[in-house]
Write a structure and sequence with these properties.
The protein is mainly alpha-helical and 346 residues long. Helices cover 53% and strands 8% of the residues. Helix 1 packs across helix 2.
Length: 346
Amino acid sequence: HCGFTMDAEGKKMSKSAGNGIDPADVMAKSGADVLRLWVASVDYSQDVNIGDEILDRTSEAYRRIRNTMRFILGSLSDFNDLEHSVKEWDALEPIDQWAMVRLWQLLGDVERAYDEYKFHVVYRTVYDYVVNDLSAVYMDATKDRVYAEAPDSPRRRAAQTVLMNIIEVLVRVLAPVLSFTTDEVWEHYPEAIRNRAGRPANVQLAGWPEKSDFLPALPDAASAKALADDFAVLLEVREVVTKALEEARGAGLVKKSQEAAISVSLPADMLAVASAYDAAVFEELFIVSEVSFAEGEELACAVTPASGEKCPRCWNYRTLGGNPNHPDVCERCGDVLDAIGFTEGE
């Protein structure tokens, strides 16, 4: 059963009322994929509404999805999956492993929604994933690695490996809806992949993602669930940390999260989960310079200015001069400058 298409006020469209919307006008203004995304976003079993304000919201959602894929492609410009992919699961950082498990969960959710012809669930599932898991967490947390590590750094290649998996899934699951955009993404893959012999000329010929396509291979279901459960706790902590950092910025204590040292108190069960991971995991996840944990009755976060000096290259607060060749930056950035052959005075 299908509902009627109504205007923004819930009135049935008709010629006599003059409240119809010509799809050609929408495509001329916003492009065909915005119209296709609107169609996918509504529950067609009910009456559906369309109007300028609704289409503006759809356009904004489209931009979020498009810009996310654009950001991922930009982060992969020097990536060749055959040469640079991390092959072993344990070579990934914990947040990389979480992102891979989360991507596999997304694929399963999207497959079920397509199988049941619930296209609005496909839309909502992908949109929430893009906004909440990618933009707000994974891409934000790994920017430092992608931008500031040496090009061939194993940690940078690990993040790129995950981003490659993500774009490979997103471009395929969105192809039935955003046909033109996903074809454009397909044509702007990293050069080494784009020019590979035998690659499908069009995303519509690329096939559906399978678990066997993931590289590195995903762990068994029990291990994946344990990791997802851990990160459910860690991301709950991150929400509290993020709120505390916003308040610290509002109070003028810090300008950017990298300027902060945070002390988190948390109940014993949550502390047990957090204690299984190195402090560096949380510095990356929270995008701060120092993290410490202590047991407390409830989850809370205190923010203080970080010790050390601001590295002018990566903006993290560290001890500068650890690499004698580059006394004005942190040791990590000094090592990177050595790796890329940069000398002072250039």
